[in-house]
Amino acid sequence: MAIRVRAEAFTYVAHALGVVAAVMVLVWCIHFRGGLAFHSQTNKNLIFNIHPVLMLIGFIIIGGEAIIAYKAIPGRKEVKKVIHLVLHAIALIVGIVGIYAAFKYHNESNIANLYSFHSWLGIGTICLYGIQWVYGFLVFFFPGGPQTLRSESLPWHVVFGLFVYILALSTAVLGFLEKLTFLQSSGLAKYGPEAFLVNFTSIVTILFGAFIVLTAISSPPGVTDDFNYSAIYNTNISWRCVLLEFKSLLICPN
Ligand code: HEM
């Protein structure tokens, strides 16, 4: 059975969910948590608040938009490739600054570093993201690998990229859960508006990620080319093909 779905519809839903998630995390950190600051002598929590804002808006949302750039933006392949790698670079840099903010908050508040599963997963994810970006840059952009290496690397680039992105989503949701648990242990109402806001931000984040992945594996608008995500699937998504891809180590029967 083959289900044929075009990417455009998914991209609109993904953009809308990204805007909603960004607004929610800003309302949480600014309205409920007191605001954002890189330096504060009196309230170190303001330094921490930079972390979820930059990780969600920078790493997850801009990173997600980078993934779907080939499907969401009309135009030539070369232009889309540059937008894809630039958005990923922005996501990576903003993600590194966001992690720096978490370390700064810990160090200035005398809290231990890297003790939680969230932090381990976070460091692993950002390292894999960086490796994926550098490999993609060298092989597909500059200086660019030989044709055989590019075509053999492409399916791995797509699957590994989506794997790292799902790791990033998991890390972010764990982060929301961890912070909310800390706050509830210190007296925050379990069914209060802030708790609902944080939990719904996690839900919207997961939905956003789901639509990014759906967009990435669905049909591109217009004609396909050799170096976009559609290279694996040609013009139509086939779920049987997707399953066979994973089962037979990315050898598509088409
Ligand atoms: C993919 C996105 C994210 C990554 C890669 C990430 C990564 C990290 C890292 C590496 C640390 C350790 C800092 C240290 O030990 O000094 C950390 C701390 C923390 N993060 Fe995140 N984070 C992400 C998103 C979030 C989000 C959305 C929240 C929501 C509030 C959050 C909440 C926390 C909390 C509460 C800590 C301090 C406690 C701990 O170290 O686990 N994180 N994060």
From TrEMBL:
GO CC annotation terms, alphabetical? membrane
Q: Which UniProt keywords apply?
A: Electron transport, Heme, Iron, Membrane, Metal-binding, Transmembrane, Transmembrane helix, Transport
Q: Which SMART domains match?
A: B561
Q: Does the keyword Repeat apply?
A: no
Give residue ranges for domain Cytochrome b561: 13-217
The source's superkingdom equals: Eukaryota
Positions of transmembrane segments: 12-34, 46-70, 82-103, 123-142, 154-176, 196-217
Q: Provide the cofactor list for this protein.
A: heme b
The signal peptide stretch is none
User: In its keyword annotation, does this UniProt entry include Transport?
Assistant: yes
User: What InterPro entries does the entry give?
Assistant: CYB561/CYBRD1-like, Cyt_b561/ferric_Rdtase_TM
Q: How does it sit in the membrane?
A: Multi-pass membrane protein
Q: Name one GO molecular function term.
A: metal ion binding
Q: Where in the cell is it found?
A: Membrane
List the protein's name: Cytochrome b561 domain-containing protein
